[in-house]
Write a structure and sequence with these properties.
Blueprint: H1 2-50, H2 52-59, E1 67-68, E2 71-77, H3 108-119, E3 121-129, E4 136-145, E5 151-157
Antiparallel strand pairs: 1-2, 2-5, 3-4, 4-5
Helix pairs in contact: 1-2
Length: about 160
């Protein structure tokens, strides 16, 4: 009888530890998602208040106001599959990216403009290597349309992997 009781208690403790661990990771991912969304909203407010040109220059600056640790903003037009600003990949700015795909042959950049046009804002999930690696990882990107402009602004992050 005592043996069964000890097994039940041990199983309950292991389950609780697993739930706490998973909840911690979900909370970390939720925190990153919130930070990404807040950063995008900050960029959208600047675009509305200060104009597109000034905002794109700030977004494209790798030392600018839209860099927060691993988070950074990028921007693109609504009427084509391209980027208008990117702090770490300036070579992609202004290029036709309609054939640009990840390793799973998914053309996610086109989805950025589609989400902005159809929904005003939303999330896109896709596989993309973390900086400094070649291995694709899940990346979540929040996209928001800039009101009155032919522009969206986005910010992505890599959620913590489930253990």
């Amino acid at each position: 009888m005592k043996c069964k009781f000890v097994l039940v208690i041990t199983a309950a403790l292991l389950l609780a530890a697993a739930m706490i661990s998973t909840t911690g990771m979900v909370m970390a991912s939720d925190n990153q998602a919130l930070k990404a969304r807040v950063l995008v909203e900050k960029g959208v407010r600047m675009a509305v208040a200060a104009g597109e040109e000034k905002t794109l220059k700030a977004i494209g600056d790798p030392n600018g106001p839209f860099i927060d640790g691993e988070l950074y903003l990028f921007a693109g037009p609504l009427n084509m599959v391209a980027l208008s600003a990117h702090p770490y990949r300036p070579a992609l700015v202004g290029k036709d990216l309609s054939t640009f795909k990840n390793s799973q042959m998914f053309s996610f950049i086109g989805d950025f403009a589609r989400i902005a046009k159809e929904d005003g804002a939303g999330w896109v999930e896709y596989m993309w290597p973390k900086p400094g690696t070649d291995e694709p990882c899940l990346k979540r990107t929040y996209i928001m349309k800039v009101p009155g402009k032919n522009l969206y602004i986005g910010c992505g992050f890599y959620p913590a992997p489930a253990k």
